[in-house]
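To: structure subgroup
Subject: Chain for Friday's discussion

All,

I'm putting the inputs and outputs inline so they're searchable in the archive.
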Amino acid sequence: MRSEDLIQSLSADTRAISPYAAEQRLAIGLIGGGLAALAVMVPWMGFRPDLPGAMMTVGFAMKWAYTISLALLALVATLHVARPDAPRMRHAWLLLVPFALLAVASIVELSETPVGGWLPMWLGGSWRECSARVAMLSLPVFGGMLWAFRALAPTRLTAAGAAAGLVSGACAATIYGLHCPEVSATFVLTWYTLGMVLAAGAGALVGPKLLRW
C-alpha cells in the first residue's frame, strides 16, 4: 500500500473534536466526582443544622472563597499538565495566593483575640477528624479526575497526579464545609489545608501508576 493510500485510509473515519474537549472532559469528571462525594458526605456526616443561615455569614464565605479559589486554580494547573507537550507552569505560584490571603486573615484574627483563645480557635471542636475527612471525601472526586484523564495524554505524571489530587482535595473541602461548623480562619488554614495537601500528595504518589497511557 502506498503511503498516500494508508494516510487516506486512516483519516477516512476521523471526526472533528471540540477545541475545548479537554476542558469539557475534566469538568464532567469534576462535577461527577463532586456529586459522588456529596452523596457520601450526606448520609455519613449530614449538613450542619444551621446551614441556610451560616451560608450568609462572613466566616462561611471566607471558607468557601478559600477552597473554591484553590479548586479553580488547581483545575487550571491540571488542564495544563494534562497535555502531552505541557511545559513547566510559570504561574504555579498563584496557588499560594489563596493560602497567603487566608494567612493574613488568620493573623488579623489572632491579633484581635486574647492569647487564651488562640488554642480553641486553632483546634476548634473537630481538628482530629477534619483533615482525614477532607482527604477521604477527595477519593470520589479523584476517581472522576482519573476518568477524565483516560481521554487525555499527560506525560508529567507526578505533576498531573498532584494537580488532580489538589483539585479533588479542594472540592472535597468545599463539600465538607457544608457539614463543618468551624469558621475560624486559623482553623481552616491549618486543618482544611492539611486535608488538601494529603490529597495532593496521594495524587502525586499514584499519578505515575494510574495516569500512564
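Points worth raising on Friday:
Residues 21-210 form one domain.
The chain has a mean pLDDT of 89.

D.
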